[in-house]
Design goal:
The complex is a heterodimer of chains A (176) and B (333). Chain A has two helices and no strands. Chain A has 176 residues and is mainly alpha-helical. Chain B is globular. The chains are: A mainly alpha (176), B mainly alpha (333).
């Protein structure tokens, strides 16, 4: 098969210069350049710039938010530690107060009890003394009476027994 | 494969620029590259307008979604714009210069990329296949045109035309000179072309100045010319390779059906693989065109500083030598 390499059918010499394609290329590219430079590239550049600014501002906002969250967390942890310490102190104080109150109550109760015991003992002693004194008085009176009766008549054993019984009755009557 | 053969078994015939069917309509020769340039410009504008609408910040009613770019094309454009600026242009040119020239450089990249990618769509072959299957040939066929060939309205790779690339490189040339004059002033620019202040003022070396001037002026042209030729060569080379691979089956036509089938299968798989590479090359060459333009522009922005440094070391380099250090110098400053 015969393949004509350079003398292609209807084709121009590959390295020959033709004015029309060159001028057309120059003019068409000029028009394309003008229109693109006027309407397209500014639009694309603005779109890319807007997005860059948006991304940068979003990243900055996120970093600020993270820093704020970190600061808030640190503040919270600090507050939490302070609250824990305060609570521990309060519990310690409350325990001390409770212990102090309990000790005071115990001391007061002991004192009151001791006072009551002492008062009761004093009452008992007074009652005993009173009873003894009254018994002595009664005994003296009874003895006096018995002696009076003895003096009025000779008493035998039966009389004596009877007198004692009577005296005891009188004593019981008088005590009532 | 026979269709390709019937449609012109010449790999370069599918790659190089040729007349479009519009020539008959307008009565003058309208190459396919011109049609591709116009359509490519429209596609680039439409695609980038669409992408810009998706990338822009939406109304507040959308909430946080208004900052999100939706749609694959818009996301691709966004990634390319952001990556080219932050990873390539800003490190090389510095933030100030990169921002100044970003619209021009991005327009260059996306326009060249669109033209390169359009070349990946086999529009020309589709029209020839339709014609070969007996579809209605377009009316108004040129007198004297071969009836076996379809009229091609659209197709081909515009950047596979050196003429087209020269037109594009002219913009790069203007951009580089504009930056030079803006940085140095007209006098400074001419002085730079003459080899720098010290050389111009050194009367003992007056005879060197015209030589340097000539070399520098040639350098002004060679830089954008290199851009044009590099893009042209890469596009032509890749597409020629693909077309050649696809023609292997047709070349083996005399060997029998089995041979044609086997060779066509292997060639087809290879062509698909090369297509992926061409897809990469389409992006790469668009990037290289833009990136080298950026490098040439940035050289002029820091030219004085380079000269000072170089003179301080007691040696003088041409602009190409200074260019080689430019990115580092930009970083350094």
């Amino acid at each position: 098969m015969n393949l004509p390499i350079l003398a292609a059918d209807g084709a121009a010499n590959p390295v020959s210069f033709q004015a029309l394609p060159a001028i057309t290329a120059f003019v068409v590219f000029g028009v394309v350049l003008f229109v693109l430079a006027k309407f397209v590239w500014p639009t694309i550049a603005k779109g890319l710039d807007d997005r860059n600014h948006k991304i940068v501002s979003e990243i900055k906002a996120a970093e600020d938010a993270r820093a704020a969250a970190k600061a808030a967390q640190a503040e919270f942890e600090k507050s939490l530690a302070s609250a824990r310490e305060e609570a521990a102190n309060m519990i310690k104080q409350a325990r001390a107060d409770a212990q102090r109150v309990a000790d005071e109550l115990k001391a007061r109760n002991d004192q009151e009890l001791a006072e009551k015991v002492a008062r009761a003992n004093a009452d008992i002693e007074a009652a005993r003394k009173s009873a003894v004194a009254e018994l002595q008085a009664q005994s003296a009176a009874l003895a006096t009476e018995i002696a009076g009766k003895i003096l009025r008549r000779q008493v035998n054993d039966q009389d004596n027994q009877r007198l004692v019984q009577e005296s005891l009755k009188e004593l019981a009557t008088s005590r009532r | 494969m026979t269709l390709l053969l019937a449609s012109g078994a010449d790999p370069l015939g599918h790659v190089l620029d040729k007349s479009s069917a519009f020539s008959g309509v307008f009565g003058t020769d309208i190459p396919l590259s011109v049609v591709s340039l116009v359509i490519g410009g429209v596609i680039a504008l439409a695609g980038l307008f669409f992408a810009a609408g998706r990338i822009r910040t939406g109304p507040e009613s959308q909430g946080h979604r208004r900052y999100v770019t939706e749609g694959r094309l818009a996301q691709l454009v966004e990634v390319l714009v952001d990556g080219l600026y932050t990873q390539m242009l800003e490190p090389v040119m510095g933030a100030r210069l990169a921002k100044t020239w970003l619209p021009f450089l991005l327009s260059t990249f996306f326009f060249v990329l669109t033209l390169n990618l359009m070349g990946m769509v086999p529009l020309m072959d589709m029209q020839e296949i339709l014609h070969a299957f007996g579809g209605h040939a377009p009316e108004g066929e040129q007198a004297g045109a071969d009836a076996k060939h379809a009229l091609i309205w659209i197709g081909g790779t515009a950047t596979a035309s050196l003429s087209v690339n020269i037109g594009l490189a002219a913009w790069a040339f203007l951009a580089i000179q504009w930056q030079s004059i803006r940085e140095l002033g007209v006098g400074g620019w001419l002085e730079h072309l003459a080899g720098g202040k010290e050389l111009v003022q050194n009367k003992g070396l007056w005879f060197v100045v015209p030589i340097i001037f000539l070399v520098e002026v040639l350098g002004l042209v060679i830089k954008p010319a290199a851009l044009a030729i590099r893009l042209f060569a890469n596009m032509v080379g890749g597409h020629t390779l693909m077309a050649t691979l696809m023609l292997f089956g047709a070349m083996a036509a005399t060997l029998g059906v089995a041979a044609v089938s086997g060779i066509s299968l292997v060639a087809g798989v290879a062509a698909v693989a090369i297509s992926f590479m061409e897809l990469f090359v389409a992006f790469l060459q668009a990037f290289v065109f833009m990136f080298l333009t950026a490098v040439f522009i940035s050289q002029m922005a820091h030219h004085d500083e380079h000269h000072d440094e170089e003179h301080g070391h007691g040696e003088h380099h041409g602009s190409e030598s200074a260019a080689a250090h430019s990115p580092g110098a930009v970083h350094g400053h």
